[in-house]
Amino acid sequence: MNCVIGLCTKAKGWPSALAELGYEVQVIEQTIGLSSGGRVKPDAMAVSNKFVHAIVFECKSGSFVDHEQISRYSELRPADLLRWITVYSSSQFKFDLCFSVFEFNRNGIETEIQTYPIMVFGKEFIQKIRDFSLAPLNDKFPIKVGGMLVPLSYYPFSDQDEDAVIIPRVLRMLVQVASQRARGGPSSLAEATFSSEDIVSQIHPYWKALSTEHRNSLGERVRRIISRLLASHGDLRTSLEELENKGGYKILSPLKELREKAELIIAETKTQPTIESFPH
Amino acid sequence: MDYLEGIMYAEMTEEEEELEVERRGKPPELKSYLVESNGLLQSTIQSSELHGQIEDTGVSDIKILNLSSGSHSAGFYLDLKDKRFLVLHTGDLAEDTHRLIKELTYSPEYLLDRAWIPTHMLQDISKLPGNQFNGFGLQYLDVFAPTEESDELDITASGNIADRALTAVMSESALRRSLSYTKTRIRRGTPLNYAKDDLMWDGTLSVRSGKSIDDHIALVEETRTRYKDLVEGIEKYRLTAKEVEGTRHLGGRAFNLTFDRTIDDLESFLDRLLNPGSAFRLWGIKSKIDANYYQVLALDLHTDGQMDLEISTNLMRVYLPAAACGNSLLRLFVNLQRYFDSRTRCEEIFS
Questions:
Q1: Domain membership flag for residue B351
Q2: Do A172 and B322 touch (CB under 8 A)?
Q3: Which of A212, B44, B115, B123 is deepest in the core (most CB within 10 A)?
Q4: Contact A11 B256 (CB under 8 A)
Q5: What pLDDT is stored for residue A34 in this prediction?
Q6: In this complex, do A168 and B308 lie within 8 Å of one another by their Cβ atoms?
Q7: Interface pTM, i.e. ipTM
Q8: Structural domains counted in chain B
Q9: A169–B contact, CB cutoff 8 A
């Protein structure tokens, strides 16, 4: 998702191939009702008003292909999309469904998906398999990315990611809430604090654009992680308490400790075996 | 305005203005401080050392603010015409007023911050119609180099030679990344009725000579307007999800800060950048993505706002979430110009 959004913005250190054609990611995770019945939920829709064209992205991180999903996508029509995106001319509007994959899961997807363009994100290039319906878009490929700096922060994680990806942001949020205590904010140590969507929503920059199901799932995940961290790291709890009690002054010492603790916790999380690492 | 004009009536002559320090027995300068507010200022200010009281004047949007801290005290006229970008005018001694303003804007309770005016903006304001460039101050301190190799530069010039002095300094290639403006001196008005101000990088305007209150206030207003436009322009790039015809559309993008100076040791650079006691006032968790690429999940300790950074040897991407204040980016940008590379650029801020 970050790579796709990055291609649609003018960023230094990362190609702006889609932005140059006027594409911008308008919508993510939108459930779209098909006029034929049924629903699809693309990961992102990038729209170019220059060409009155959209790329409907399905981002695949594994090798599994849901053929029923592909069948539903085959029924997707321009009118179904126009309910959710903004284009200058609905009568001329066209779109392409595109599957985005990484080099490591390319083969499985390429075998299973025979009719739609596939965008392959490799270390050196972004390549396409099969053409889009728009010639200027085809002409952009392959897109050189070797030695470039992939954007990481537009879409930092989803509920499908491991705890190791989410924990750093949870730790920052805990420190942020503890710092705000001096201005009358809630306590980072109170469970009720993270029941508030106002607080939890700060974990993801595009929280409001996520689907309701995804927000609920992420919120639950964040609350579980916080509970576990505070229960298993008493020193973290102590430092947060100290930060809250300082009232905004003389906070350098607890902040330094919190940074060290945070980096230790993150390092521990990365070295812990996950269920996938056990032979089965 | 009459009171402020009264202070200016006693202003120094152009000959006397060269003495930088306000001295006892000589009239103190009229000073105006541009301050950004992210909250409602209470009528009573009470923190550990700082005390203050806001009083009505009977004039809409003008209040009196009396501040004290320890042995320092001063009175200000508080201009609330813009509820977010406030101006505090005073004729009291700089020794007191500078300190009080610093305490007020550093206090975590009041959500106030100084203006952070980049080098480009100081230069641009000095060239606006009606303004005449009359001097500059450059200051640079490399806080990222090992102590024994640290560069430091401090140059001030004013009057007719200022232009030539600046040209001479800028022509020296070894100095180019050390030319961070601390101030420009700007003259406005006619030969007989004028104001000559030092416009500082922190939003302080001090009248060095002249008696034209109208010209001083005009410069204050120009600075306020331009600064406000800059901050609000930055905030349009925050990462947001906006309602468009019943759907949430993504908005925002990263800011790309580029350096002429290469960061040789990213780990060490980030340790200094993320030192909460430094001028940058950032806390953060860093993670190494690659040998020359780090991500930082940062907090701006002044606003407690989030900021995501991606840093490589000559590039820093900055992402501001929806609740972030544009002033936070300017604080980072200006401090990088002052303490790392004065040629730090950001096309999104200055195209």
A1: no
A2: no
A3: B115
A4: yes
A5: 95
A6: no
A7: 0.92
A8: 3
A9: yes
Does the residue B174 lie in any domain?
Answer: yes
DSSP B149-205: G--EEEEEEEGGGHHHHHHHHHT-GGGGGG--EEEEEEEEE-SSSEEEEEEETTSEE
Range of the domain at B102: 2-114
Q: What mean pLDDT value characterizes chain B?
A: 88
Asked if A81 is an interface residue toward chain B (Cβ–Cβ < 8 A), one would say: no
User: Residue A13 region, left (φ>0) first, then alpha (ψ -120 to 50), else beta?
Assistant: left
What distance in Å separates residue A114's CA from the closest CA in chain B? 31
A126 shares contact with chain B (CB less than 8 Å): no
Q: Which of B72, B89, B114 is the last residue of a domain?
A: B114
Domain end residue (candidates: B180, B213, B235): B235
pTM value?
0.91
Identify the residue among B304, B312, B320, B347 best suited for mutation to test binding to A, counting A beta carbons within 10 A and taking the highest: B304
The verdict on residue B341 lying in a domain is: yes
Give me A98's structure tokens.
């595109």
Residue at token pair 């390429």: A110
Q: Do B256 and B342 share a domain, yes or no?
A: yes
- A11-25, A32-46, A233-247, B4-18: range with lowest mean pLDDT: B4-18
**Is residue A277 over pLDDT 80?**
no
Nearest CA among B169, B134, B144, B53 for reference residue B100: B53
* Residue A262 at interface with chain B, using a CB cutoff of 8 Å: yes
> What average pLDDT does this structure show over B187-203?
94
B23/B7: higher pLDDT: B7
**A248 contacts chain B (CB < 8 A):** yes
- Answer whether residue B266 is part of any domain: yes
pLDDT at A107 over 90: no
Residue B313 belongs to domain with CATH number: 3.30.160
Q: Of the candidates A149, A172, A209, which has its C-beta nearest B241's C-beta? A: A209
Q: Which CATH class is domain A2-144?
A: alpha beta
Chain A residue with minimal CA distance to B312? A149
Q: Which residue matches tokens 């006691």?
A: B277
CA B75 vs CA A98, A167, B60, B92: distances in Å: 65, 48, 18, 7
Report chain B residues whose CB lies below 8 A from the CB of A169. 297
Q: Are residues B173 and B259 in the same domain?
A: no
